[in-house]
Amino acid sequence: MTLRYLSFDLSDGDDGVTTLDAMASTRAEQHGDVMAEVRQVLDWAERHYPGLQGPLEEGGTWLHELQVQDEPGGWRSVALTFSATPEFAEALMAAFGGDDE
């Protein structure tokens, strides 16, 4: 699946948790398109890892945080961050692409 606005960067922590960060900054007119991509990624996570959303230290596989902020000049920024197991991160990167590890 190809994403037009979101591009994921991956980082591995010493604690075994992988972090996937994606950010998009667009004019307000494209905000709906960005949010459709966010929904596509979250739908994928829920479909492929159902019932596994939650803190990793409590047995979860993935957890996400979404931040949306209005910026000066009519821009909006969207940040989508996953804390996940390495297996989830690998599958997400395979599905949506991004920088190589």
What would your notes on this structure say?
The mean pLDDT is 92. 29% of the residues lie in helices and 35% in strands. The chain has a single domain (8-96), classed as 2-Layer Sandwich (GMP Synthetase, Chain A, domain 3). The two termini are 19 Å apart. The longest helix has 18 residues, at 31-48. With 101 residues, it is α+β, with helices and mostly antiparallel strands. It has a four-stranded antiparallel sheet.
Describe the structure using short key phrases:
single chain, 101 residues, alpha+beta, GMP Synthetase, Chain A, domain 3
- Per DSSP, the total helix count is 2
Please provide the count of β strands.
Answer: 4
CATH topology: GMP Synthetase, Chain A, domain 3
CATH class: Alpha Beta
CA(first)-CA(last) distance: 19 Å
Classify the secondary structure makeup into a structural class: alpha+beta
**pLDDT averaged residue by residue:** 92
Largest sheet: 4 strands, antiparallel
Low-confidence stretches: none
Helix proportion range: 25-40%
**Level-2 CATH architecture:** 2-Layer Sandwich
Shape, principal axes of CA atoms: elongated
The H/E string reads EEHEEH
- Order of strands across the main sheet: 1-2-4-3
Q: How much strand? A: 25-35%
Domain module count = 1
Radius of gyration: 14 Å
